[in-house]
Amino acid sequence: MSSPIKILFEILSLSDKSSTTMENLIAETNLNYKIMKIYLDLLEEKGLLKKGKSLNKTSYSTTNLGTQYLKDYQSIMSTIKKPNFHVLN
Predict the structure, then answer these.
(1) What is the 3-state secondary structure (H, E, C) of the chain?
(2) Tag placement on the chain: N or C end, fewer CB within 10 Å?
(3) pTM of the model
(4) Rounded mean pLDDT of 46-73?
(5) Domain with residues 4-80, CATH architecture
(6) Where are the domains of the chain?
(7) In which band, very low, low, confident or very high, does the pLDDT at 89 lie, cut at 50, 70 and 90?
(8) Is-contact 60 22, C-beta < 8 A?
């Protein structure tokens, strides 16, 4: 199971280049409807995702703030994956 942070990243990534539906997000992330709804509501509440309409269906797209979150997450992950990165105890 992925961590909540990774799930948030995945949802934002999937809706970053073009809007997508909840059904597509559920299929791509393997989350059930109830859990996906919780994540979508959280992302929308925090201003990272916006809800709209596309072909009479509710769609989701990443906001500018959400795109910045994606960049920050990728930067942190690339730093952590560097061979000389050590976690202090």
Answers:
(1) CCCHHHHHHHHHHHCCCCCEEHHHHHHHHCCCHHHHHHHHHHHHHCCCEEEEEECCEEEEEECHHHHHHHHHHHHHHHHHCCCCCCCCC
(2) C
(3) 0.83
(4) 93
(5) Orthogonal Bundle (1.10)
(6) 4-80
(7) very low
(8) yes
Residues 6+ apart with CB under 8 A from 36: 22, 25, 26, 29
24, two tokens: 């597509």
Is 78's pLDDT higher than 90? no
Tens-place pLDDT, residues 12-34: 999 998 889 999 999 999 999 99
Report how far residue 15's alpha carbon sits from residue 24's, in angstroms, rounded to the nearest whole number: 10
Q: How far apart are CA 35 and CA 12, in angstroms?
A: 15
